[in-house]
Amino acid sequence: MAKKPVHYVVVDAFTETAFKGNPAVVCFLEEEEEKDVEWLQAVAREFNISMTCFLTRVATSGTGGSSPRFRLRWFTPVTEVDLCGHATLAAAHTLLTSGMVDSDTIEFMTLSGILTAKRVPEMKSSDISKIQGGDVPGIWIELNFPVVPIAEDDDAKRISSVSKVLNGTSIIEIKKTVKDDHFVISQLRPDHFLYPINTIVIPSAKEVQPQFDEIQRCPGRGIIITGSAQPDSGFCQSIFCPKTWASPRGGVVKVCLDGQNKKVALRGKAVTVMRGSLLA
After folding, report:
1. Domain residue spans in the chain?
2. Average pLDDT over the chain, rounded to whole?
3. What Cα–Cα distance (Å) separates residue 173 from each residue in 5, 38, 155, 162, 167?
4. What mean pLDDT do residues 101-121 have?
5. What percent of the chain has pLDDT over 90?
6. Phi and psi at residue 210, in whole multiples of 5°?
7. How many CB atoms sit inside 10 A of residue 273's CB?
Protein backbone atom coordinates (compact mmCIF):
# COMPACT_ATOMS: atom_id res chain seq x y z
CA MET A 1 0.00 0.00 0.00
CA ALA A 2 1.34 3.43 -0.94
CA LYS A 3 2.46 5.67 1.87
CA LYS A 4 0.20 8.60 2.68
CA PRO A 5 1.92 11.92 1.83
CA VAL A 6 2.96 14.16 4.71
CA HIS A 7 2.05 17.75 3.94
CA TYR A 8 4.44 20.54 4.83
CA VAL A 9 4.83 24.29 4.48
CA VAL A 10 7.86 26.54 4.62
CA VAL A 11 7.24 29.70 6.62
CA ASP A 12 9.40 32.80 7.06
CA ALA A 13 8.97 33.79 10.72
CA PHE A 14 9.37 37.17 12.39
CA THR A 15 8.68 39.01 9.17
CA GLU A 16 5.78 39.92 6.89
CA THR A 17 7.93 39.83 3.74
CA ALA A 18 8.78 36.66 1.84
CA PHE A 19 12.44 35.57 1.93
CA LYS A 20 13.11 37.64 5.05
CA GLY A 21 13.06 36.64 8.72
CA ASN A 22 13.92 33.12 9.87
CA PRO A 23 12.63 30.18 7.80
CA ALA A 24 11.22 26.97 9.26
CA VAL A 25 9.53 23.87 7.87
CA VAL A 26 6.22 22.82 9.43
CA CYS A 27 5.18 19.19 8.84
CA PHE A 28 1.73 17.80 9.69
CA LEU A 29 1.55 14.30 11.12
CA GLU A 30 -1.75 12.48 11.60
CA GLU A 31 -0.40 9.59 13.65
CA GLU A 32 2.92 10.39 15.25
CA GLU A 33 3.44 6.84 16.51
CA GLU A 34 4.01 5.73 12.91
CA LYS A 35 6.99 8.08 12.57
CA ASP A 36 10.02 7.20 14.67
CA VAL A 37 12.74 9.62 15.71
CA GLU A 38 15.06 8.40 12.96
CA TRP A 39 12.49 9.33 10.32
CA LEU A 40 11.85 12.75 11.89
CA GLN A 41 15.58 13.44 11.98
CA ALA A 42 16.02 12.25 8.40
CA VAL A 43 13.32 14.68 7.23
CA ALA A 44 14.99 17.57 9.03
CA ARG A 45 18.32 16.58 7.50
CA GLU A 46 16.68 16.45 4.05
CA PHE A 47 15.31 19.99 4.34
CA ASN A 48 18.63 21.13 5.78
CA ILE A 49 17.47 24.50 7.11
CA SER A 50 17.82 25.76 10.66
CA MET A 51 14.63 24.15 12.00
CA THR A 52 12.00 21.62 10.95
CA CYS A 53 9.05 21.06 13.25
CA PHE A 54 6.36 18.39 13.40
CA LEU A 55 2.75 18.96 14.45
CA THR A 56 0.31 16.30 15.61
CA ARG A 57 -3.20 17.16 16.77
CA VAL A 58 -3.97 15.97 20.30
CA ALA A 59 -7.51 14.86 21.10
CA THR A 60 -9.18 17.09 23.69
CA SER A 61 -11.86 16.22 26.21
CA GLY A 62 -14.41 18.15 24.18
CA THR A 63 -15.24 20.56 26.99
CA GLY A 64 -16.40 23.95 25.83
CA GLY A 65 -13.88 26.77 25.71
CA SER A 66 -10.79 24.55 25.55
CA SER A 67 -8.09 25.59 23.09
CA PRO A 68 -7.00 23.21 20.34
CA ARG A 69 -3.87 21.34 21.33
CA PHE A 70 -1.01 19.97 19.22
CA ARG A 71 2.13 18.04 19.99
CA LEU A 72 5.11 20.00 18.66
CA ARG A 73 8.68 18.79 18.16
CA TRP A 74 11.64 20.70 16.75
CA PHE A 75 14.62 19.28 14.85
CA THR A 76 17.73 20.87 13.43
CA PRO A 77 19.49 18.92 10.64
CA VAL A 78 21.51 17.12 13.34
CA THR A 79 19.42 16.82 16.52
CA GLU A 80 16.12 17.38 18.33
CA VAL A 81 15.98 20.52 20.51
CA ASP A 82 13.96 21.48 23.58
CA LEU A 83 12.70 24.86 22.39
CA CYS A 84 12.58 27.01 19.27
CA GLY A 85 10.89 30.38 18.93
CA HIS A 86 10.76 30.95 15.19
CA ALA A 87 9.56 27.42 14.36
CA THR A 88 6.81 27.72 16.99
CA LEU A 89 5.71 31.00 15.41
CA ALA A 90 5.75 29.29 12.00
CA ALA A 91 3.57 26.45 13.31
CA ALA A 92 1.10 28.82 14.98
CA HIS A 93 0.92 31.00 11.88
CA THR A 94 0.14 28.01 9.70
CA LEU A 95 -2.62 26.74 11.98
CA LEU A 96 -4.22 30.16 12.45
CA THR A 97 -4.19 31.16 8.79
CA SER A 98 -5.08 27.85 7.15
CA GLY A 99 -8.45 27.29 8.77
CA MET A 100 -7.16 24.19 10.59
CA VAL A 101 -8.28 25.61 13.94
CA ASP A 102 -11.37 27.60 14.89
CA SER A 103 -9.75 29.49 17.75
CA ASP A 104 -7.54 32.48 18.42
CA THR A 105 -5.44 30.50 20.91
CA ILE A 106 -3.46 27.28 20.44
CA GLU A 107 -1.64 25.11 22.95
CA PHE A 108 1.51 23.17 22.10
CA MET A 109 2.74 20.15 24.07
CA THR A 110 6.54 20.27 23.91
CA LEU A 111 9.70 19.12 25.65
CA SER A 112 9.63 22.50 27.42
CA GLY A 113 6.07 22.05 28.69
CA ILE A 114 2.82 23.58 27.46
CA LEU A 115 3.39 26.64 25.28
CA THR A 116 0.61 28.90 24.03
CA ALA A 117 0.21 30.98 20.90
CA LYS A 118 -2.55 33.50 20.29
CA ARG A 119 -3.70 35.74 17.47
CA VAL A 120 -3.27 39.47 18.12
CA PRO A 121 -5.09 41.47 15.41
CA GLU A 122 -3.49 44.63 14.14
CA MET A 123 -6.54 45.67 12.12
CA LYS A 124 -10.28 45.77 12.55
CA SER A 125 -11.81 42.45 13.54
CA SER A 126 -14.12 42.63 10.50
CA ASP A 127 -11.07 42.43 8.24
CA ILE A 128 -9.37 39.46 9.92
CA SER A 129 -11.43 36.94 7.98
CA LYS A 130 -10.02 38.15 4.67
CA ILE A 131 -7.46 35.56 3.63
CA GLN A 132 -5.04 36.35 0.80
CA GLY A 133 -2.90 33.53 -0.54
CA GLY A 134 -3.30 31.47 2.60
CA ASP A 135 -2.22 34.23 4.98
CA VAL A 136 -4.33 36.53 7.13
CA PRO A 137 -2.89 40.03 6.64
CA GLY A 138 -2.08 42.37 9.48
CA ILE A 139 -2.00 40.02 12.46
CA TRP A 140 0.62 39.45 15.09
CA ILE A 141 1.02 36.14 16.87
CA GLU A 142 2.10 36.13 20.50
CA LEU A 143 3.99 33.18 21.95
CA ASN A 144 4.15 32.53 25.68
CA PHE A 145 7.54 31.03 26.55
CA PRO A 146 9.33 30.14 29.78
CA VAL A 147 12.12 32.42 30.95
CA VAL A 148 15.60 30.91 30.73
CA PRO A 149 16.96 30.85 34.31
CA ILE A 150 20.20 32.69 35.06
CA ALA A 151 22.66 32.28 37.92
CA GLU A 152 25.60 34.14 39.40
CA ASP A 153 28.92 33.69 37.65
CA ASP A 154 31.85 33.78 40.09
CA ASP A 155 34.49 32.52 37.67
CA ALA A 156 37.28 35.12 38.12
CA LYS A 157 39.00 34.15 34.87
CA ARG A 158 35.75 34.56 32.93
CA ILE A 159 35.00 37.91 34.57
CA SER A 160 38.45 39.14 33.58
CA SER A 161 38.00 37.97 29.99
CA VAL A 162 34.59 39.66 29.72
CA SER A 163 36.03 42.96 30.90
CA LYS A 164 38.62 42.66 28.16
CA VAL A 165 35.90 41.87 25.64
CA LEU A 166 34.14 45.17 26.46
CA ASN A 167 37.32 47.21 26.13
CA GLY A 168 37.41 48.09 29.83
CA THR A 169 33.76 49.13 30.22
CA SER A 170 32.75 49.13 33.90
CA ILE A 171 30.75 46.04 34.92
CA ILE A 172 28.23 45.83 37.75
CA GLU A 173 27.43 42.12 37.64
CA ILE A 174 27.85 39.04 35.48
CA LYS A 175 25.37 36.16 35.31
CA LYS A 176 25.14 33.08 33.12
CA THR A 177 22.31 30.97 31.78
CA VAL A 178 21.84 27.59 33.45
CA LYS A 179 23.11 25.89 30.31
CA ASP A 180 26.26 28.02 30.54
CA ASP A 181 25.97 29.14 26.91
CA HIS A 182 25.19 32.87 27.30
CA PHE A 183 26.36 35.51 29.76
CA VAL A 184 24.34 38.48 31.01
CA ILE A 185 26.36 41.56 31.87
CA SER A 186 24.75 44.42 33.80
CA GLN A 187 26.20 47.87 33.30
CA LEU A 188 25.17 51.27 34.72
CA ARG A 189 25.61 54.69 33.26
CA PRO A 190 26.45 56.90 36.25
CA ASP A 191 23.82 59.52 35.41
CA HIS A 192 20.96 57.08 34.90
CA PHE A 193 18.74 54.93 37.13
CA LEU A 194 19.58 51.22 37.17
CA TYR A 195 16.58 48.92 37.02
CA PRO A 196 16.58 45.84 39.31
CA ILE A 197 18.93 43.13 38.08
CA ASN A 198 16.23 40.47 38.17
CA THR A 199 14.44 42.18 35.27
CA ILE A 200 15.70 42.50 31.70
CA VAL A 201 18.12 45.42 31.80
CA ILE A 202 19.90 46.60 28.67
CA PRO A 203 22.97 48.82 28.13
CA SER A 204 23.64 52.07 26.38
CA ALA A 205 25.18 51.20 23.05
CA LYS A 206 27.23 54.40 23.16
CA GLU A 207 29.29 53.13 26.07
CA VAL A 208 29.95 49.60 24.84
CA GLN A 209 32.72 48.99 22.34
CA PRO A 210 32.98 45.19 22.11
CA GLN A 211 36.08 43.45 20.83
CA PHE A 212 34.62 40.76 18.57
CA ASP A 213 37.84 38.77 18.35
CA GLU A 214 37.82 38.50 22.14
CA ILE A 215 34.12 37.51 22.24
CA GLN A 216 34.93 34.56 20.01
CA ARG A 217 37.47 33.37 22.59
CA CYS A 218 34.98 33.58 25.48
CA PRO A 219 33.22 30.40 26.64
CA GLY A 220 29.59 30.02 25.62
CA ARG A 221 27.84 31.14 22.45
CA GLY A 222 27.76 34.83 23.22
CA ILE A 223 27.10 37.63 25.70
CA ILE A 224 24.03 39.74 26.44
CA ILE A 225 24.91 43.18 27.81
CA THR A 226 22.31 44.95 29.93
CA GLY A 227 21.89 48.43 31.40
CA SER A 228 19.67 51.52 31.44
CA ALA A 229 18.97 53.68 28.42
CA GLN A 230 18.01 57.33 28.07
CA PRO A 231 15.63 58.51 30.82
CA ASP A 232 12.67 58.73 28.44
CA SER A 233 13.28 55.45 26.62
CA GLY A 234 13.56 52.79 29.35
CA PHE A 235 15.78 49.96 28.12
CA CYS A 236 17.89 49.05 25.13
CA GLN A 237 19.64 45.76 24.39
CA SER A 238 22.89 44.50 22.90
CA ILE A 239 23.53 40.83 22.14
CA PHE A 240 26.83 39.68 20.69
CA CYS A 241 27.16 36.16 19.29
CA PRO A 242 29.93 36.22 16.67
CA LYS A 243 30.28 32.42 16.92
CA THR A 244 26.76 32.07 15.55
CA TRP A 245 26.10 32.73 11.88
CA ALA A 246 24.00 35.89 11.54
CA SER A 247 21.54 36.10 8.67
CA PRO A 248 21.32 39.27 6.54
CA ARG A 249 17.59 38.56 6.08
CA GLY A 250 16.58 40.65 9.10
CA GLY A 251 13.38 40.32 11.12
CA VAL A 252 11.17 41.89 13.80
CA VAL A 253 10.26 40.44 17.20
CA LYS A 254 8.56 42.20 20.11
CA VAL A 255 9.46 40.97 23.59
CA CYS A 256 7.67 41.48 26.90
CA LEU A 257 8.93 39.98 30.18
CA ASP A 258 6.56 38.80 32.90
CA GLY A 259 9.08 38.47 35.71
CA GLN A 260 6.50 37.54 38.35
CA ASN A 261 5.30 34.48 36.42
CA LYS A 262 8.71 33.80 34.85
CA LYS A 263 7.32 33.99 31.34
CA VAL A 264 8.30 35.94 28.27
CA ALA A 265 5.95 36.93 25.45
CA LEU A 266 7.38 36.92 21.92
CA ARG A 267 5.25 38.67 19.33
CA GLY A 268 5.85 38.49 15.58
CA LYS A 269 4.42 38.01 12.11
CA ALA A 270 5.09 35.33 9.52
CA VAL A 271 4.48 34.55 5.87
CA THR A 272 4.05 31.21 4.06
CA VAL A 273 6.38 30.84 1.08
CA MET A 274 6.07 27.19 0.03
CA ARG A 275 3.75 24.18 0.25
CA GLY A 276 4.40 20.56 -0.63
CA SER A 277 4.23 16.91 0.34
CA LEU A 278 6.73 14.33 1.58
CA LEU A 279 6.38 11.07 -0.31
CA ALA A 280 8.94 8.95 1.53
Report:
1. 6-147+265-278, 150-244
2. 78
3. 53, 44, 12, 11, 16
4. 95
5. 45
6. -70, 145
7. 15
